[in-house]
Amino acid sequence: MLGTWKIRVRALKKEAYALYIAVRDPRVPWYAKLLIGLVLAYTFSPIDLIPDFIPVLGYLDDLLIVPLGIALALKMTPADVMVDARRQAEELISRGEPVSRVGVLLVMVIWVIIVIAVVWSVRKVIVDIRS
Fold this sequence. Notes:
The longest helix has 30 residues, at 101-130. The protein has helices at 2-22, 30-43, 60-76, 79-95, 101-130. The mean pLDDT is 82. The radius of gyration is 19 Å and the shape is elongated. The chain is mainly alpha-helical. It has one domain. Helix 1 crosses helix 3 (60-76) and helix 2 packs across helix 5 (101-130).
């Protein structure tokens, strides 16, 4: 069973790399490029929206969000583009993994917004208690 998961993860990673290549292809529509860009930024980001140390929820993005995002992006990308991109992805995989700086920035911005919202809410509760 563990071997099956490793094969699936490897295949998913290859598809993500192929999308990484496909997003630059002029045959891909702009709306697909937008979705692919968001999915890849999150997929290759070393920071998760939900940190892995949070029980169950921490792996939710790895098990659901990323695969569903990649599947949707694949459906929006022309088949002939994906054939070319998959071939090029093999070369990319052999050289190493890309890391998305945009993904890191996106997740950091989301966390900053969450922290600001929590601090603002706590401050409001404290002010309401004092008055």
